[in-house]
Amino acid sequence: MAYIAPKDYAADPEVVAKILRTVSGQLELDWMKRVGEPAAYRPSQAARGLTLDDINQGGYAPDKLPEVIRHNFSMAPRGALLPPGLPSLGYRVNRKSDVWADVAPRLFEEAKSRRWAPARDVPWNALVPLPHDERHELALRQLATGLISIGLVATDVAASWEWRMNQEFHEIKYLLCAQMFDAARISEAFRKRALFGGGSLGVDSRPLGELLKSIFLSDTYPEASAAMNLTLFSVVQALGRHWAATASNPADTYLGTQLAQDATRFVSYGVDHVRSHLRARPQQAETLGEHLDLVENALVGVLGAPETIEPLVLVSGGFAPVAGFYARTLDQYFRRCAAAGLGDRRDASALTPFLRMLEGDAS
Amino acid sequence: MSYYGSADYRYNDDLALRMRDIKKGNLDLGWLKAGTEARKFAAENAKRGLTYMDLNQGSYGYDDMPELPRGPRGAQPRGAGFVAEDQADLEPELNRKTDVWAYKVASFTEEAVSRQWDATHDIPWGDLDKYERSEELEIAFAQLCTFFTEVELIATDLPAKWLWRMNNQFSEVKHFIATQAMDEARHAEVFRKRALAGGIGLMEALPQTEHALKAILDGDTYSEASAFMHLLAEGNVLTMFRFSEFISPTPVDKRIFQLVMQDEARHVSYGMQHLKWIMDHAPEQKEQLHRALDEGENVTINQFDAALTEAMIVLAGKGTRPEQIQDGIKIVGNMQARQITEYFHRLERAGFAERIPRSRFTPMMADLGIGQGVKAAL
User: Could you count the other beta carbons within 10 Å of the beta carbon of residue A104?
Assistant: First the structure.
């Protein structure tokens, strides 16, 4: 046990005496006078319910938060009265611009309202009998194996930062919990997809493992967020759309659509977070850019790996559709980077020469 | 950046040659020869759908997973083909099944995914205005909601602190922990919303509680932290949720407690089943868990002396007049005795009954002359 309480309360006569006073009816009730800012917020739109934006008003709103949190390192909720004696819980991420995105409360609300359960909501029986040939199915299972790995590590990345964030940023912490949930569900859904029927998993991909490790071991949260939410999930979102677009049955259409929908929340947060971060601290653009150089290099490894590109060729009906898919996906990604304030990354990125390799004929 | 991949793809002839071959239609297709097990998987119960339990077979299953899954340390899913020397090692710290596993964890995870709810839509917030509430009761309820908002996020931070250190072979546990983090975020959200919808707002944070939260977060091992958080702290909170439903000032509040209770019961069950797994598979850890709970119970005792107790007394007695306070004390006293009794029962069910005579609660309750239920449990 790393933390030892300052007193042995069980043997402290003061504690027992205080409890005995309470039990005998001698209440202090002084806490009843220590009220904070009155609040009686109601849904701004009845049909939408009481949202985080509805209650983020007055002293409870995040716009009153300073850039650097110096006043609270405990779990006391933002806006509560802070008495003396609150301990530090050791939070390491205490700068608003390191985590904040205005869109985060709305994304958390969306994550809750668009819930789905792979066990019941996917029409699994649409995969029996197999609606396509065996090789096509094995290609989908190989892609599903990669998506399981992505879901597993994305859960880890969100978790590894959530507990280090100051409670004053509770909306971001909520959103990271939703990301853990969503990412774990991606892993669950595609594990079930690969195994249902006469199923099997494919093989581990070393380049994918390296990409995920480079994201997982990011040095700062802004780096991790840019790499995971913006870079990785731009590709995951596109893969979800591609999965749905090439689906031969309702189960795959549903899975691809849900994957794209969930991934979009990661991307939206990533763009808004990086934008907010760079608006507050423009000097960080170079650091983030350098990090993305390395992550994009690792992404080239994944996109060019036989475990990725070959199954895509099989399910897409040839190389040309895959080249087009990659070109569209990466073009959209570069546009998002620019929108987030990272400038035009095309020239610096390892993805650009890779795209050139895909152009033209085989000679 | 702490990790640089093994290749610089800007200058990679292998990649260029591979792309040229693929363009020509020459696919390697080595991945097709994965050599992984093929099995028949189907939903055993059509209504329940395709669950993790349905996938629990052979190399894909969790029952056959050894205590030490040697080899896999990366992102590969359990059952996928991999070459140990060729994996990107994520350096997981928790690699023993006993470190994390719990009986029934797969079904807890399925239940969590299927029983998600939404604090925004599923609580009839607009109905709060239909019910008259005295100011003193609303103040007491605001203090209770401040406490719950404060404590619920420990159960996001603690699981998050350990989740990423676990080997990916334990995916059902990691998934359960992710669902717990989401559940608890939603609990913090719903109590914050209730406090800010009631007219009073948030009240004062509680230093005694914060020391207990710090002790939970700083557990030396996941199992220590789980015993303290899932079994003791969340067990206490579960009893409080039941009590709070009983004393809720409005049906809106009753609805809140009904929803959070179902989640909390799942978390407590996981904690109990994890402890039971340890008792059955690694009984040598008992002394370490005793020491962790010695301190856990110690900081819990300090919480009985708090504004929280008085707020619950006011709510239970429905006011601050002396006779109301007396009524409230009886009800809250019973609730607190029940918290300890239920904790002891959970220890028994987990196979850790030897904890009960050593518990720090036992002499304290005797000193106070309350808790007949505790004596009965002993």
Answer: 26
Q: CA angle, corner B348, sides to B342 and B351, nearest 5?
A: 145
Stretch A239-251: mean pLDDT, rounded? 98
Within 8 A of B202 by CB-CB distance, chain A residues are 36-37, 39, 60, 77, 79-81
Sequence-distant (≥ 6) Cβ neighbours of residue A197 within 8 angstroms: A127, A128, A130, B40, B41, B42
Q: How many helices (H) and strands (E) does chain A have?
A: 15, 0
For chain B, counts of helices (H) and of strands (E): 16, 0
Quote the pLDDT of residue B303.
Answer: 81
Residue B224 clears pLDDT 50, i.e. is over it: yes
Tokens 């509560």 found at:
A80
Mean pLDDT of chain B: 94
State whether A212 and B75 contact (CB < 8 Å): yes
In whole angstroms, give the CA distance from residue A97 to residue A108: 19
Please classify residue A129 by burial: count the beta carbons closer than 10 Å to its beta carbon, then call 0-12 exposed, 13-18 middle and 19+ buried: exposed
* Contact: A159, B159; criterion CB under 8 Å: yes
Query: What average pLDDT does this structure show over A280-306?
Result: 97
Query: For residue B301, how many C-alpha atoms fall within 13 Å in the half-sphere facing its CB?
Result: 29
Residues of chain B above pLDDT 70, percent: 97
Tell me if A195 and B211 make a contact (CB, 8 A cut-off).
no
CA distances from A68 to A64, A175, A284, B152, B211 (A): 12, 20, 16, 24, 24
B331–chain A Cβ distance below 8 A for any pair: no
Q: What is the DSSP letter of B167?
A: -
Q: Does residue A174 contact residue B183 with C-beta atoms inside 8 Å?
A: no
User: Left (φ > 0), alpha (ψ -120 to 50) or beta: where does A356 sit?
Assistant: alpha
Phi, psi of A230 (to 5 degrees): -85, -55
Structure confidence at residue A3 (pLDDT): 86
Among the partner-chain residues A38, A109, A122, the one whose CB lies closest to the CB of B200 is A38
Distance between CA B160 and CA B158 in Å, rounded? 5
DSSP H helical ranges for B164-233: 171-197, 207-217, 222-226
Of the pLDDT bands very low, low, confident and very high (cuts 50, 70, 90), residue B370 is low
Distance CA A2, CA B292 (A): 9
Burial class (CB in 10 A: 0-12, 13-18, 19+), A63: exposed
Secondary structure element (H or E) that encloses residue A309, with its range: helix A306-316
> What's the CA gap between A27 and B326, in Å, rounded?
10
Residue A204 has its nearest CB partner, among B76, B197, B219, at B76
| pLDDT higher than 70, residue B377 | no
Q: What is the pLDDT of residue A10?
A: 83
> Would you say A330 and A351 are in contact if contact means Cβ atoms under 8 Å apart?
yes
Going by C-beta distance under 8 Å and a sequence separation of 6 or more, which residues neighbour residue A232?
A150, A154, A211, A215, A295, A299
What DSSP character marks residue A88? P
Contact B49, B64 (CB under 8 A): no
- CA atoms of A132 and A153, how far apart (whole Å): 30
Could you tell me the two tokens for A203? 């093989």
Best of B189, B293, B361 to disrupt the A interface (most A CBs within 10 Å) is: B189
Per-residue pLDDT, A362: 52
pTM for this predicted structure: 0.97
Contact (CB<8Å) B55/A16: no
What's the whole-number mean pLDDT along residues B316-333? 96
Residues 246-275 of chain B with CB under 8 A from chain A are: none
Contacts 24+ apart (CB under 8 A), A320-329: A323/A358, A323/A359, A325/A238, A325/A242, A326/A355, A326/A358, A327/A355, A327/A358, A328/A238, A329/A234, A329/A235, A329/A238
Segment B230-276, tens digit of pLDDT: 999 999 999 999 999 999 999 999 999 999 999 999 999 999 999 99
